[in-house]
């Protein structure tokens, strides 16, 4: 079993590096890359990256030639197959935001960047950042008594149930129903 990387110390000695594959490590939000002006391919799949914006700002600064980036398997990369909280729309917003921050990318997460994605990133990219609400420490779980329900308070008590009876002016027999127009009498 290979040791998993937690930092990239010593990478500055490889200033002419063009491809860097750092998949399946323990690299997190403290990731610091040295200036790598020739780096065009970077894969950081299956690491522990959660802060997308700071990573992208750092990459824009230290990797000006970056064209291929993959962040699959990180919390920062929404994936509907892994997390039930994420959907395809989250991933689309993620791609748009990444392309806004790194406009020179040609491939993102093993998918070619389309002209339409690039145009959308120019127009809306800065607004596509997915922000999760922060949970404060004084947040108290809602108690069952204060749980929201659309029912009036009198109808919440199941032992004190009162039914409602109403009258309707029209009675529907189904003679002129669209659903019945293709059924002959002999088929009933």
Explain this structure:
The chain is of the alpha/beta class and 188 residues long. Helices cover 19% and strands 7% of the residues. It has helices spanning 52-62, 88-101, 115-124; strands at residues 19-21, 41-43, 68-70, 107-108, 111-112. The chain has a 5-stranded mixed sheet with strand order 1-2-3-4-5, with no helix packed on it. Strand 3 (68-70), helix 2 (88-101) and strand 4 (107-108) form a beta-alpha-beta unit. The longest helix is centred in the middle third of the chain and has 14 residues, at 88-101. The model has no long low-confidence stretch (mean pLDDT 79).
H-E string: EEHEHEEH
Overall body shape: elongated
Low-confidence stretches: none
The count of DSSP E runs of length 2 or more, i.e. the number of strands, is 5
Q: Provide the helix percentage.
A: 10-25%
Largest sheet: 5 strands, mixed
**Binned strand content:** 5-15%
Radius of gyration: 28 Å
State mean pLDDT (0 to 100 scale): 79
Class from helix and strand fractions: alpha/beta
The number of helical segments is 3
Which sequence of strands runs across the widest sheet?
Answer: 1-2-3-4-5
Straight-line distance between termini: 71 Å
């Amino acid at each position: 079993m290979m040791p998993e990387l937690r930092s990239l110390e010593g990478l500055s000695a490889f200033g002419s590096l063009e491809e860097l594959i750092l998949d399946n490590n323990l690299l997190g939000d403290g990731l610091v890359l040295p200036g790598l002006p020739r780096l065009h391919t970077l894969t950081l799949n299956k690491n522990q990256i959660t802060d997308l914006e700071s990573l992208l700002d750092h990459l824009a600064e230290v990797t000006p030639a970056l064209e291929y980036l993959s962040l699959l398997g990180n919390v920062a990369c929404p994936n509907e197959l892994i997390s039930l909280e994420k959907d395809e729309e989250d991933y689309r917003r993620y791609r748009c935001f990444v392309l806004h921050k790194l406009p020179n990318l040609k491939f993102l997460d093993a998918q070619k960047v389309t002209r339409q994605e690039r145009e959308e990133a120019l127009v809306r990219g800065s607004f596509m950042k997915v922000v999760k609400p922060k949970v404060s420490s004084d947040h108290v779980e809602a108690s069952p008594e204060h749980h929201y329900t659309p029912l009036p308070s009198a109808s919440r008590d199941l032992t004190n149930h009162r039914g409602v009876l109403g009258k309707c002016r029209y009675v529907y027999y189904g003679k002129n129903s669209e659903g019945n127009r293709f059924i002959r009498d002999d088929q009933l």
